[in-house]
Design brief:
The complex is a heterodimer. By secondary structure, chain A is mainly alpha-helical. Chain A has two domains: 8-303, ABC transporter involved in vitamin B12 uptake, BtuC, CATH 1.10.3470; 325-424, no CATH class. Chain A is built from 16 helices and four strands. Chain A is globular, with a radius of gyration of 24 Å. Chain A starts with 7 loop residues before the first helix and ends with a helix. Chain B is of the alpha/beta class. Chain B has a single domain (6-245), classed as P-loop containing nucleotide triphosphate hydrolases (Rossmann fold). Helix content of chain B is 34%, strand content 23%. Chain B contains nine helices and ten strands. In chain B, helix 6 (181-194) links the parallel strand 7 and strand 8 (199-203). In chain B, helix 3 packs across helix 4, helix 3 (97-106) packs parallel to helix 5 (151-164) and helix 4 packs across helix 5. Chain B is globular. Chain B starts with 5 loop residues before the first strand and ends in an 11-residue tail after the last helix.
Chain lengths: 425, 256
């Protein structure tokens, strides 16, 4: 494993990432992109904190949004309480209050949830998540009811080092700094005795007990620390959106963070970051193009679970291994060959989904008959067989080609992997 | 003379209506190598599970170095200096050989649940893990995930994890089960080396291993100990021959 956190190569990677993140707004000036990047930063911290449980300790939680949401509410209430008495510096430090709130929630709830691991843990977190979500609607004074709690992140009269956090790009800078600090801290945690014993408890709790460790205590501490970072992410979201609603702590948010971590790859520290980038971009970009984005996301998730259960990070890791073994060149032509048929298949599928969605959602207005409906930028008659048959034909051709060429890729893939791992053993 | 390493008094264990351990009394002396033998289903592994608190006892008393340990949790007993291995390999599959051993030494070196110290800076933990890795002959496999080691290597790692913490009372549950003859010979050498100066209790089916290693042998039959004595005396014990081997007098040559 890694001998030191501060070795030169790693320092370069960390520094490079920070510099890149800070430099992005200089190139990408659009407000849309900046908002997107802000959301990515927040979700990266949130999903990394989630993976402290799922990937590192082997705890499948269905209620992680509780820590995120409570951190967000705590930050928002504190922001409003400080009000005009505060300034940009206190605002910048507010996510820490969110972290502490998440941590306290971790102490209280983790005490209950971490008695057992496995399915029991998952079920208890589901129950507690629902409990807190229900409470959030029962106490509108604290959680703001349907409308949520809103605030203004620009407080005080004087800027701090020229920053008021008012412009979105300044908020972005703040998010980058917090996200970077949290990521470094969470990575450092994986390199400590507790972090390693969390892995041990994940792999084999019984053996961990017989080398002197109280597995309940290890899980409990990891939940508390994970709650801390989730709370910071929540605090950042409160400042970023200037509104916190009950949705931040409900099951939907808990589900999203699970999907992000899983799609990114729970077996790798950086997996959830990739997941956060990918899912947020899908959510915002595809979500901006079509109302059916959740359907696409669902299909994508299904595809990942079936084809690459290790997530994007595992795919990257395998390619890197192939490259280091000098075998990537063998696979590249196959990757290139399979791309066009996959694109054809996707085009056909998107056509079918959009046609179906337009027909069923009622967006079509009349729905059938002579009225032309706008689907994928084209005026189409949903009642006529033409568009459907075209989409179906494209899908069919794509499917046949993908299966044919994909089959050859599969054969080459297995042979290459055999060479790779055969050489190693 | 100080208290025995392990003292068991009138220990009983029932699973529902069936009595598995039916009143065991046993003293394990400090520094001895003690083997527990007996036919399948005699309760040998159960006895280990009771001593190490993997299973709760039904009644009786267990003392570790003069101290009552009934009711303690496995990790508490481990912290008092008792370490055990398992019949079915029980290792951290996704961690490397080195990480497996480092996990096994962290508590005994006092690092507890620390999340403010870097593992890489804990020189004593690294040296101790490397020492054990060399002792069990796995130093060439340092960075290999434990899950893809060969069976014999996993068994060696199992013993390594058990002894790494420096516990002075060691329980080995069938350390050579499923090994070939040459692997068994290596394992016996390994056990002899690592149990030097410690109290060793082992359950073992391989009579070559038992008579080669043990200072004393206890014979467990249907949840009761029918004899505890030196290997030579056990070999001649009529009751043991009767109960454990039927009428066969070949005790000592059997290689499982």
């Amino acid at each position: 494993m890694s001998p030191a956190i501060l070795n030169r190569g790693r320092l370069a990677v960390w520094g490079g990432c920070l510099a890149l993140a800070l430099a992005l707004p200089l190139v990408l000036k659009s407000g849309f992109i900046i908002s997107l990047l802000c959301q990515i930063g927040i979700m990266a911290v949130f999903s990394l904190s989630y993976n402290m449980l799922l990937g590192q300790t082997g705890l499948l939680s269905f209620g992680h949004a509780v820590y995120y949401g409570l951190g967000a509410f705590a930050t928002m209430h504190l922001l409003n309480a400080i009000g005009k008495g505060g300034g940009p510096l206190t605002t910048a430090l507010l996510p820490l209050a969110g972290g502490l709130a998440g941590m306290v929630a971790g102490v209280v709830l983790g005490y209950v949830t971490t008695r057992k691991a496995g399915t029991t843990f998952a079920m208890i977190t589901l129950g507690i998540g629902e409990l807190v979500a229900a409470c959030s609607l029962m106490f509108p004074a604290v959680f703001g009811g349907e409308g949520g709690v809103s605030g203004n992140r620009v407080v005080g009269k004087e800027a701090f080092l020229g920053f008021t956090w008012g412009p979105q790009v300044e908020m972005y800078g703040l998010i980058v700094l917090w996200a970077f600090a949290c990521t470094v801290a969470m990575f450092a945690l994986t390199q400590t005795p507790l972090g390693r014993m969390a892995n041990a408890v994940r792999d084999n709790p019984e053996r961990a007990e017989f080398v002197g460790y109280d597995t309940e205590r290890v899980r409990f501490l990891m939940v508390i620390l994970s709650g801390f970072f989730a709370g910071i992410a929540g605090g950042l979201s409160a400042l970023n959106y200037e509104i916190v609603t009950a949705e931040t702590l409900n099951a939907h948010t808990s589900g999203i963070v699970l999907l992000i971590a899983f799609v990114g790859g729970i077996g790798f520290f950086y997996g959830p970051i990739i997941g956060a980038i990918l899912v947020t971009v899908m959510q915002i970009v595809i979500g901006g193009m079509t109302h059916a984005w959740l359907l696409y996301f669902g299909l994508f998730f299904l595809f990942m679970v079936l084809v690459a259960p290790g997530g994007i990070a595992s795919l990257i890791a395998v390619q890197r291994n192939l490259w280091q073994a000098g075998l990537l060149g063998r696979m590249l032509p196959h990757y290139l060959a399979v791309t066009p048929p996959v694109l054809v298949l996707l085009t056909g599928l998107v056509g079918l989904i959009e046609l179906g969605y337009a027909l069923l959602s009622g967006d079509a207005g009349v729905g059938a008959g002579d009225t032309a409906t706008r689907v994928l930028g084209m005026q189409l008659h949903l009642g006529a067989p033409g568009p459907w048959l075209t989409a179906l034909a494209i899908t069919g051709i794509g499917l046949i080609l993908t299966r044919w060429i994909g089959g050859r890729l599969g054969v080459a893939w297995n042979a290459t992997l055999a060479t790779l791992y055969g050489d190693k053993a | 003379m100080s208290a025995p390493a392990i003292r068991i008094k009138d220990l009983k264990k029932n699973f529902g209506a069936s009595e598995i351990i039916r009143g065991v009394d046993l003293d394990i002396r400090r520094g001895e190598r003690h083997a527990i033998i007996g036919p399948n289903g005699a309760g040998k592994s159960t006895l280990f599970h009771l001593i190490s608190a993997r299973l709760p006892i039904t009644s009786g008393a267990i003392e570790l170095k003069g101290e009552n340990v009934v009711g303690l949790k496995p990790f508490e007993i481990n912290r008092k200096g008792l370490s055990r291995s398992f019949q079915i390999t029980n290792i951290f599959h996704n961690l490397s050989v080195f990480e497996n051993l480092r996990c096994a030494v962290l508590w005994s070196l006092g690092y507890r649940y620390s999340f403010w110290q870097r593992l890489a800076s804990l020189k004593d933990a690294r040296l101790r893990a490397e020492q054990v890795m060399e002792d069990i002959g796995l130093d060439k496999r340092r960075d290999t995930p434990a899950g893809i080691l060969s069976y014999a290597e996993q068994r060696a790692l199992e013993i390594g994890i058990t002894i790494a913490s420096g516990a002075d009372v060691i329980l080995l549950d069938e350390p050579t089960a499923g090994m070939s003859h040459s692997e068994t010979d290596d394992a016996v050498e390994l056990i002899r080396r690592v149990s030097e100066g410690k109290t060793l209790v082992m359950v073992e089916h391989d009579m070559g291993v038992v008579f080669g290693l043990a200072d004393r042998i206890s014979v467990l039959v249907y949840g009761q100990i029918i004899a505890t004595d030196t290997p030579a005396a056990i070999r001649c014990n009529a009751a043991v021959q009767e109960a454990y081997l039927g009428t066969s007098p070949h005790l000592g040559n059997e290689h499982d």
